[in-house]
Write a structure and sequence with these properties.
Elements lengths: L2 H19 L6 E5 L5 E4 L8 E4 L8 H19 L3 H12 L19 H6 L8 H18 L4 H10 L1 H7 L6 H21 L1
Antiparallel strand pairs: 1-2, 1-3
Helix pairs in contact: 2-5, 3-8, 5-6, 6-7, 6-8
Length: 196
C-alpha cells in the first residue's frame, strides 16, 4: 500500500471513530420532482422539501413523551370521534410511543404512517407528534367509518390497507395483520382498564 492510500485509509478510520464518539444529528428532507425523481437533503434548501427522517436528540426520556402526547391524543379523539384508548393502543402497537420510529417498509412516526397515507391525511411532518397523531387518528376514523365501526376490520385496514379487507371480505389472511389486531386489542383493554 502506498503512502497516499495509507493516508486516505487513516483519514477514513479517524473519521469513523469520531462519528462513533460524537454522533452527528441531522434531519433528512425529501421531495419528488416533476419527473418523479426523489431528492434528499439534510438542509431544507428548497420549499418543496418535507421532513423524511427526524433525528432523535435524546433530550427527554420516553415516559415524558408519553405524558406529552396525552393532550394531543384527547384533542384528536374529540376531533375525529375515535376512542382515546384505541388511539393509544395503536400508537403502542405501532411504535411503542417512539415518535422517531421508522419501519423497514418506510412507515413513520408514532402511528407509523406510510408516506402516501401521510400525504393523503395532510400530514406535513410525520415525526411531529401532533401532525402524526392527528393524521393517524383521522385515517383510523375513516377506516372505522368505512367498515361500519367494526374495530377488527378497521384495524385490519389500518395495517394491510382497506383494499385487502374489501378483497377478502374480512380480515386478510396475513399473520402480520392478525398479530397487529390482537396486539392493539390487548393494549386497548389495558388502556381502558387503567382509565377507569
Amino acid at each position: 500500500m502506498n503512502s497516499g492510500a495509507r493516508t486516505i485509509l487513516c483519514g477514513l478510520i479517524a473519521g469513523f471513530i469520531l462519528c462513533l464518539c460524537h454522533p452527528a444529528l441531522a434531519d433528512i428532507y425529501r421531495f419528488r420532482d416533476e419527473r418523479g425523481v426523489w431528492h434528499f437533503s439534510n438542509i431544507k434548501s428548497d420549499p418543496r422539501y418535507k421532513i423524511y427522517i427526524r433525528t432523535y436528540d435524546g433530550s427527554k426520556p420516553v415516559n415524558q413523551y408519553i405524558k406529552d402526547y396525552d393532550e394531543i391524543i384527547h384533542k384528536a379523539s374529540k376531533r375525529y370521534g375515535v376512542d382515546v384508548s384505541l388511539i393509544k393502543a395503536v400508537i403502542k402497537a405501532e411504535s411503542d410511543f417512539n415518535q422517531h420510529a421508522v419501519s423497514s417498509k418506510g412507515a413513520q412516526g408514532l402511528m407509523q404512517l406510510m408516506p402516501g397515507t401521510a400525504d393523503a391525511m395532510e400530514v406535513d411532518d410525520p415525526f411531529d407528534a401532533t401532525d402524526n397523531i392527528h393524521g393517524g387518528t383521522r385515517y383510523l376514523s375513516l377506516m372505522l367509518e368505512r367498515f361500519k365501526n367494526d374495530t377488527r376490520l378497521a384495524l385490519a385496514a389500518y395495517n394491510a390497507g382497506p383494499e385487502r379487507v374489501a378483497e377478502y371480505r374480512g380480515v386478510p389472511p396475513y399473520q402480520e395483520t392478525k398479530a397487529f389486531i390482537d396486539r392493539v386489542l390487548n393494549y386497548y383493554r389495558q388502556f381502558n382498564s387503567s382509565a377507569k
